[in-house]
Design a protein that fits this description.
single chain; mainly alpha; 3 domains; two-stranded antiparallel ribbon; 12 helices; 3% strand; kinase activity; kinase; Kinase; transferase
Length: 291
């Protein structure tokens, strides 16, 4: 059992959830890497709009086939050895894969929009937005393969894997979170409701961002939880620190020591371990203002 204390709300994940999370986190990271690889390679090879349809299809399908093999690799780890890449793709993956269809739709749209135009001299900034959109399709397909992995494992009666979060749980968590944000939850019930929200759908990142902003992250338990789930909440903490310093500057820095103390306290409040970086920024701003 893995547990996190989110400002008094004890969040616990059992072995089933841990195993599911590991699969999900693997494909999230894999999807990020492969979508970046697709974007970089496409931008290096493509000079015209027409080439997008031809070359991106081959590259995209190659990447997705590799992701499918990664799915089988994850399945075999659970001693399910009767599913190969062909069976996995045909029986489990097809309903989650949209890249080829979306690329074909994109090609038709481009063909209709640019009929009669020449694309031999297409600019980089004309091509780049299209490639970025297609790389998002690659990300979605690679990530969604983790759903197919879970489907296969559950169908084969693997017991130590939890189903992915379903739409009913997502909607219930959303309703609870909306009521929590709107102030409809009494203080005595807040911990219980936060626990319900995260248990129902632990993968909604803005829940953790909101809790940090409103209630802090003194013990950095939210940071540990989001790292476990595959998110880097430190980016959000950095944004909060920048916003806080901006407000300090707008209110004028007359007492530098007081300002530095406030920054240090706020960093501790939200669980930001880089307080020295932001304190030194106050020094820099004060020196500039006095120059």
């Amino acid at each position: 059992m893995i547990s996190f204390d989110i400002n008094g709300a004890i969040i616990e994940f059992d072995e089933k959830m841990n195993n599911y999370n590991n699969i999900r986190k693997f494909f999230k990271s894999y999807a990020l890497d492969k979508s970046s690889e697709f974007e970089e390679e496409s931008l290096n090879k493509i000079q015209t709009i027409k080439q997008i349809s031809e070359k991106c299809l081959l590259l995209g399908e190659k990447i997705i086939d590799e992701a499918i093999k990664k799915g089988v690799e994850n399945i075999v780890k659970y001693d399910v050895i009767t599913i190969d890449s062909n069976i996995f793709k045909e029986n489990y993956c097809e309903k989650y894969l949209d890249f080829t269809r979306l690329l074909n739709n994109f090609s038709k749209d481009c063909s209709n929009t640019n009929k009669g135009k020449k694309h031999n001299n297409a600019k980089f900034y004309d091509i780049k937005p299209h490639i970025e959109r297609l790389s998002e399709y690659i990300y979605n397909d690679c990530f969604n393969i983790h759903y197919a992995v879970v489907d296969a494992l559950l169908e084969k009666k693997v017991k130590n894997i939890q189903p992915y979060v379903d739409n009913k749980s997502i909607r219930q968590a959303d309703a609870l979170f909306n009521n929590y944000k709107d102030g409809f939850i009494s203080k005595p019930d807040e911990c219980r409701v936060i626990k319900q929200i995260i248990t129902l759908n632990p993968y909604r990142e803005d829940v953790y961002e909101y809790i940090i902003k409103e209630d802090g992250d003194f013990g950095r338990e939210i940071e540990k939880l989001t790292e476990f789930l595959g998110y880097d909440i430190r980016i959000h903490k950095s944004k909060l620190m920048n916003i806080y310093i901006k407000k300090l500057i707008e209110n004028d820095i007359n007492d530098i020591n007081s300002a530095k103390e406030k920054v240090q306290k706020y960093a501790k409040y939200i669980g930001c371990i880089d307080s020295k970086v932001y304190i030194s920024r106050i020094d820099d701003i004060y020196t500039f203002e006095k120059a």
